Amino acid sequence: MDGDDSKVLSHVIQLAPYSFVAMNVLEKNNQKSAPPPCLIKYQDYKVQLGVDKETLFKGLEYNAGKGFVCIDKEQLATQKGIFSEMMS
Predict the structure, then answer these.
(1) DSSP percent split of the chain into helix, strand, coil, nearest 5
(2) CA 57 to CA 59: how far, in whole Å?
(3) Beta partners for 2?
């Protein structure tokens, strides 16, 4: 709208058209450390996901008694401790 950044709607207008946020709420909760979100073009975040069987089941192994089991050590390391955090 204004300015030279295509990802920012406006540097002057605080609310986009048809916003669900009331202006008084925005003014009351305005924080410099948490600016309003910017606009991102679809091309910037679209991701082409694989649809073939090998891509979908990468890192998984089929076990007749248990179903699919994750065998990807790197993925398992990133998930370590999440179950116990969710259950507490």
Answers:
(1) 30, 10, 60
(2) 6
(3) none
23-81: pLDDT as tens digits? 777 777 776 666 666 677 777 778 787 889 988 899 999 999 889 998 999 988 888 87
Tokens, residue 25: 């709420």
pTM: 0.39
Spell out the long-range contacts of 7-12 with Cβ–Cβ below 8 A and sequence spacing 24 or more: 7/38, 7/39, 7/40, 7/41, 7/44, 8/38, 8/39, 9/38, 9/39
In the chain, domain spans? 1-46, 48-88
Cα distance between residue 3 and residue 11, in whole Å: 7
**How far apart are alpha carbons 6 and 43 in whole angstroms?**
13
Going by C-alpha positions, the residue among 10, 63, 72 that lies closest to residue 37 is: 10
48 token code pair: 């082409």
